[in-house]
Write a structure and sequence with these properties.
The protein is an all-beta fold. About 0% of the residues lie in helices and about 55% in strands.
Length: about 290
């Protein structure tokens, strides 16, 4: 992978948050892959390594790893696009890539990058998959789909266990997005096909429970850390999109990058560091890290 010298700190904005947000005070840091048109951070591990994707000036999507302030590009061999989503403490990375010669979503395949080697991960009997997270033991979370558009009755959240076995949830139009290290609690999103509304969900010891951010009309849960803190995205009744943090005790806090018109939170690590993206007033998308000050 090509290496880049440190180039990630663009803006740091210190901001205090109320009691509904665990671990305050915190600071926001904005960063972009060098020369990228847009950048999104999707996952962060306990050591602070961040994975995500960026779009170049030709409109092609690539993956990246940012570790110790250095960027490395990630591209699945021969793929039309690559999007890493999660990274575990050992540095194993999961995500999805777009294969040539097919139509989406069947051409979207999951990948695992471990010790420099790529492999494709697909739920048995289905042409497409999107992978979101990988646990310390190697369990992988995501969704599988057939040839219909995403968010449809043939998309189901699944886990590939560390022993290689698969298990899917019996909820149509669902996606597993994160889990506690032991897998006892999974978070994700699903579309209610009767109402067309998107909700977050928990699967706790096999029991499915939907949830929504209060006063929202759209909720997506994207990750959970070992303490049970959940991050995600919601849309308020005025139509603005925000990130959210749901504390383990059930309290919600809004996450807005200062001055942004859109903020989305996608990943959280055991220390409470949060990553995602935001859109500035000029319409450009940047990645962000929300962390505690040193």
């Amino acid at each position: 992978m090509r290496q880049y010298s440190p180039f990630w700190i663009i803006v740091v904005a210190a901001l205090l948050l109320g009691a509904a947000s665990p671990g305050g005070p915190f600071q926001f840091t904005s960063f972009d892959f060098p020369n990228a048109v847009s950048t999104t951070a999707f996952g962060i591990n306990p050591g602070g390594d961040i994975v995500g994707s960026y779009r170049d000036t030709a409109g092609v999507n690539h993956g990246f790893l940012m570790s110790g302030g250095n960027f490395s590009a990630i591209n699945f061999p021969g793929a039309l696009a690559t999007q890493p989503r999660g990274i575990n403490p050992g540095g194993d990375i999961v995500g999805n890539y777009r294969a040539p010669g097919g139509t989406q979503p069947a051409s979207l395949h999951g990948f695992l990058l471990s010790q420099g080697t790529f492999s494709t991960v697909l739920f048995p009997g289905h042409p497409g998959s999107i992978l979101q997270r990988i646990s310390p033991s190697g369990s992988i979370y995501g969704c599988y789909h057939d040839t219909e558009p995403l968010d449809n009755p043939t998309m189901f959240g699944f886990v590939r266990n560390a022993d290689g076995s698969f298990a899917a949830i019996d909820v149509p139009s669902s996606m597993h997005n994160g889990a506690t290290p032991d897998g006892s609690t999974i978070v994700g999103l699903f579309d209610d096909l009767a109402t067309g509304l998107t909700h977050g969900y928990f699967v706790e010891n096999g029991s499915f429970a939907p949830f929504d951010v209060p006063n929202s009309n759209f909720t997506q849960a994207w990750d959970i850390n070992p303490a049970g803190d959940v991050v995600g995205v919601f849309r308020d009744t005025a139509g603005k999109v925000h990130g959210f943090l749901r504390a383990a005790h059930g309290g919600f806090a809004t996450i807005d990058f200062p001055g942004a018109i859109v903020t989305q939170a996608f990943g959280i690590n055991p220390g409470g560091d949060i990553v995602g993206n935001y859109t500035d007033s000029k319409g450009k998308t940047h990645a962000f890290l929300r962390s505690r000050p040193d």
